[in-house]
Amino acid sequence: MNILFVCTGNTCRSPMAEALLKHKFPEVNVKSAGVFAHNGERISQHAVDVLKERGVDANHVSQRVTPRLLQWADVVLMMTTGHKQALMMEYPNHQEKYFTLKEYVSEADKEVWGQLKKIYADFEIKRSKYIKENGRKLDHKILEENLSSLLEKELNEIRILERSLINYDISDPFGGSLSVYKKTLMELEENIDLLIEKLEKSGDAYE
Predict the structure, then answer these.
(1) Which chain positions lie within coiled-coil regions (predicted)?
(2) 7 is known as an active-site residue
C-alpha cells in the first residue's frame, strides 16, 4: 500500500508522520509532500530532534504535491482540513483518496465529506465552464464578480457544511519551541498507532 502524508511546507508534520510510520510499520510504502512546499528544503531541526528521542531517524527534503505523487498514492492523508480542501479544489480527480489523518482513523463525518466532495466537483465544473466561455470577453474584475454571483449557492452550501465538520487538524509546530514539537509528535504518534491498527485489521497493507 502506498501512503502519502501532506502538510503545508513538508518540513514538519508530514515528514514526521512519514518517519514514524516507516519506523513503526515498514510493511507500507510511505512518502510525504506539501501543498505549498518548496522542493529541496531540509526537515526542521526540532522535528529531527524530537524524532531522535523516540529512536526514529528522519533524513528528508521537502517536495511539493504533484499529480504524479497523487497517482502513486493509494491514500492521501492530510494534516488539516484546509490541506484536504485545497487538494480537492486543485486536484479533484483524486479526491476519493483524500482524508485528514484523524478523519481516516476515526471514520467520522463521512456523510458530510461525501456531500462536500459532490459540491466541490460541481463547483469546479461550473467555474471552469464559465471561465472557458467568458474568460477572454471580460476583464478580470468583472469576471470575478460574475463568478461570485454565479457560484453563490455552492459557496454558501460549502460554508455551512464546513462549519459542521469536527476539527480534525494536527497542530502546526512551525516556528515553535522544542516542547511544541514534542506535543505535535505525541499527537501524530497517537494517530499513527491508530492508522497501523486499522491497516492491520483491514489487511490493506499487505495487498
Answers:
(1) 144-205
(2) yes
